[in-house]
Amino acid sequence: MPNKHYHIHLICAPEDQVAMQDGLALFMENRAFLTRDLSQGDHESASYSRRCIDKCDYVVMLVGDSYGKLNNTGVSQLHLSYIYAKTKSKPLLILLKLRNETANPSRQLLDFLGMIERDNSDAIYYYDEDVHMQTFIEPAYRKFIKEHGTAVGWTRQSETDDKAKLGNIGGYTGKLAKIGKKSNIIKNSMAIDADTDFADIIGKPEHIDEPIVLSFTTDAYQGGNLSEVELSASLSWREILQSVRHFSEPFSLHVLRQKINELLNAQALALVQEIARAVHAVSRTQVTDKDFQILQIQLIKMGWLRVVKDDDGKQELLTLTSKAKRLL
């Protein structure tokens, strides 16, 4: 195997499968720089996981007997990190513990495992509780890197101060840049056909309260300075549908996007202040084009929104379906 190191992020329930996590850390010692989800389950920990997934080359997910600690919306960081990694199209190696007859998993864990197995049947490796993880993972890792080994890789010497040139807010060096010209054009037609494979990147949601992680940009104000920051936030499908529920139907794609931007803007300041406490205001919060396209397609594929034509038959509009209205 080439002597190349990668940044790998481990998605896991930190309190579960500790011996297996240790085995993975030992295996990766001379192969990768390993980060992992944190145990607190708060906004700061969630933000850390998103930043690690953004920066990493590959993702490994370890799921054992626990769904993980729930946040205030009833979803675990394990679940949120998985959704975010899928949204970002990160190469994903999944390790699932085999169920034994005496196990009594929670309904949330069973539903989560069912979703994983439906979406990733060719990237899953099953282990039992007596496995020696360092031995078990080696052939799977070799195959995984062979199939996905296009990443540049990571070495300590390659780290430079170039990121600082992008700008700095309160010491945070990340996806920051001076404001330039931005496109505010929102097309009034569906940008992607609902049958395209692109719509399957994150899989169909199982229920209306399931979270979706959306990337967005916002303008952050600190003193007299203004910088654009790219972040991510979690919304539920219910929140999204409720936001357009009281609009006259049919409504435009512009209205849907505007309401999503408002939902994201409600979280934006708190998320920015987690990494830059001196920021005192945000504005112009906008969901990314790619994530908005995925979202609109999923709403249609789930039968919650329906595409209709305007009176002239030229513009495509949206309307809530009776199925969605019954769920709200």
What does this structure look like?
With 328 residues, this protein is of the alpha/beta class. The protein has two domains: 6-154, P-loop containing nucleotide triphosphate hydrolases (Rossmann fold), CATH 3.40.50.300; 162-327, no CATH class. The protein is 35% helix and 22% strand. It is built from nine helices and eleven strands. It has helices spanning 18-28, 43-55, 77-87, 107-119, 133-148, 237-244, 253-275, 289-301, 322-327, and strands spanning 6-11, 32-36, 58-63, 92-97, 124-127, 176-178, 211-222, 225-236, 281-287, 305-309, 316-320. The protein has a five-stranded parallel β-sheet, with helices on both faces. The protein has a four-stranded antiparallel β-sheet with strand order 6-8-7-9. A hairpin with a 6-residue loop joins strand 10 (305-309) and strand 11. The longest helix is centred in the last third of the chain and has 23 residues, at 253-275. The protein is globular. The model is unreliable at 155-202 (pLDDT under 50).
Rg to the nearest angstrom? 21 Å
Q: Into which percentage range does the β-strand content fall?
A: 15-25%
The tally of strands reads 11
Q: Shape, please?
A: globular
Chain-averaged pLDDT = 80
Helix content: 25-40%
Class derived from helix and strand content: alpha/beta
What is the helix/strand order? EHEHEHEHEHEEEHHEHEEH
The main β sheet shows up as: 5 strands, parallel
Lateral strand order in the biggest sheet: 2-1-3-4-5
Please give a quick description of this structure:
By secondary structure, the protein is of the alpha/beta class.
